[in-house]
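I'll show a record.
***
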Amino acid sequence: MSGVTDSGIREVVIIGSGPAGYTAALYTARAQLKPLLFGSSIFVGGSLTTTTEVENFPGFPDGIDGPALMENMRAQAAKFGAEMVDDDIVEVDLTGDIKLLTDSSGTVHRARTVIVATGSGYRKLGLDKEDMLSGRGVSWCATCDGFFFRDRDIVVVGGGDTAMEEATFLTRFAKSVTIVHRRSTLRASQVMQNRAFADDKISFAFDSEIAELCAENGMLAGLTLRDTFTGKTRELDATGLFIAVGHDPRTALFTSQLDLDDEAYIRVAAPSTRTSVAGVFAAGDVVDHTYRQAITAAGTGAAAALDAERYIAARTADRAQDSRPSVAV
């Protein structure tokens, strides 16, 4: 089965990369659907490209670097014929049988099925100077920027697994790491908590939130912490801030087209990956705000590919039936 019809209609277009997108591309490519994947101009490979060693992805007993894992997935999909473009889809019309997708250059791509695997993005604190100080002491990626904070006092804000992983990684470079969390207990898994508590370089500021960022010569120079119970503030010397307070699904492109839940994640008809629009499927962190694991994202990517393949086969059979000449009786 060809992936592109004579009329230029793709059988499958995948929006987004990462474990879900690349797995969907692999499965649809092996089904000879010749998928076209838009991996984004910024977030190619998803969040694992900013992760260090991945220890819990099956098949790698010694672990593997996140970027290497994503590159392997991409190469495997390409081996079977998946076409990948590091560009963005900026507009979609999913209402018809043929889906219309416009890329950043204005080119309109037509597809019978679409798999959405756009993932989620880092959540910001909403503080004054936060954007201004991005790359100037404020970061959302320890593995990207940790090296530049050698022998400095660093703050990590958050209480989940990501915050603990960031803090533990940063101890390789930092003089000290303070974890700031709004509550008195962490949300992280016990194993991640144990690692952080056992590290001599890590201390904790519980029941605290960041009230203000202090800048000097355009760089982060310190923080003001506020007690979440008393409202009292105190200053904390730090020239590095790593924000790890969660993610927001990248669904802005689909708000008027697909059914979203209260947190803006795409709703699917579980256990399938079908969305509220026929021919559109969704996988990975854009759907999942419970597990958020590379392996679960890859699993739903495979499911979305299989769902799309079966949808295409059924529609192809229907078109063949409709095109048969009627027999006079």
